[in-house]
Amino acid sequence: MKYTALIPVKSLALAKSRLVPSLTQHERETLVLDMLHHVLRILRQSECFEHISVVSADARVLSQAEQWGAHALPEERDGHNPALEAAARRELAAGSAALLTISADLPLLTVCDIRALARQSAQYEVVLAASREGTGTNAVLVRPPLALPYLFGPNSLHLHKQAAIQRNLHYLIYNSRGLAMDVDTIDDLHEIQDAGCICQQANYAKLATPNL
Questions:
Q1: Fold (topology level) of 3-9+19-146+153-208
Q2: Which of 59, 73, 149, 179 has its CA 20 to 30 A from that of 99?
Q3: Do the Cβ atoms of 80 and 97 come closer than 8 Å?
Q4: What 8-state DSSP symbol labels residue 17?
Q5: CA-to-CA distance for 170 and 175, rounded, in angstroms?
Q6: In 3D, which of 171, 169, 158 has the Cα closest to residue 131?
Q7: Are 116 and 161 within 8 A, CB to CB?
Q8: Which of 116, 138, 120 is nearest to 184 (CA)?
Q9: Phi and psi (nearest 5°) for 131?
Q10: Which residues, in sequence order, are CB contacts of 127 under 8 Å at separation 6+?
Q11: What is the sign, positive or negative, of the torsion defined by CA atoms of 144, 46, 28, 207?
Q12: Is 187 exposed, middle or buried (0-12, 13-18, 19+ CB in 10 A)?
């Protein structure tokens, strides 16, 4: 089965707005790119995907993604979900049988997390990775692509579950720290530092500690 992956990334100018009181623009941009690099590296190391694409309206993000070995897909439509749908249609047309769409800000993500998702997708058409609070969706693996619509936004986990039920798709909610722990606040950075994150730990620790 041909597995592919999509990673959506916002424009760096809009990156991590909730961290504005704590980090400079440059620090926020560096954080976003560091986390994207980590997610790309983990996806490659999992050896589950024929190719990995980064979807963004930001030319710098796309250029960096290509340097890290990913396909660069400029956003074809405005809005997060429409842009992902357009990218997923390209993956489907290229022969993808199963498509993982995953957040770019998962600094605790591991190869085991990704391989576990892939194993579950052999039994379930939809595998959803829940965010820490249990309401968001940090990853969705769908077989085939676009069997489930993109419903990212408030309460997306419930919306994705309901959409799967309405379409008679077998689904599973997969919970792991690596897939649940995203970064939105300075407290999140402190938690990553405390967890001994293996990915760019020194950089995260510096960002989490003011005035360094």
A1: Spore Coat Polysaccharide Biosynthesis Protein SpsA; Chain A (3.90.550)
A2: 59
A3: no
A4: G
A5: 17
A6: 158
A7: no
A8: 138
A9: -75, 170
A10: 117, 120, 121, 139, 140, 141, 171, 172, 174
A11: positive
A12: exposed
Q: Is residue 125 within 8 Å of 169, Cβ to Cβ?
A: yes
DSSP string for 38-49: HHHHHHHHHT--
End-to-end Cα distance, the chain: 48
Q: Using one digit for the tens of pLDDT, what is the confidence trace for 71-120?
A: 999 999 999 999 999 999 999 999 999 999 999 999 999 999 999 999 99
Secondary structure (3-state) at 115: helix
Note every long-range contact of 75-84, with CB atoms under 8 Å and residues 24 or more positions apart, other chains counting: 80/8, 80/150, 80/152, 80/153, 81/149, 81/150, 81/151, 81/152, 81/153, 83/8, 83/55, 83/57, 84/6, 84/8, 84/55, 84/150, 84/152
Estimate to the nearest angstrom the gap between the alpha carbon of 64 and the chain centroid: 16
Q: Where are the domains of the chain?
A: 3-9+19-146+153-208
- Cα torsion at 166, 131, 79, 27 (round to 10°)? -170
Q: Are 32 and 12 in contact (CB under 8 A)?
A: yes
CB 8 within 8 A of CB 86: no
As given in the structure block, the two tokens for residue 173 are: 């909610």
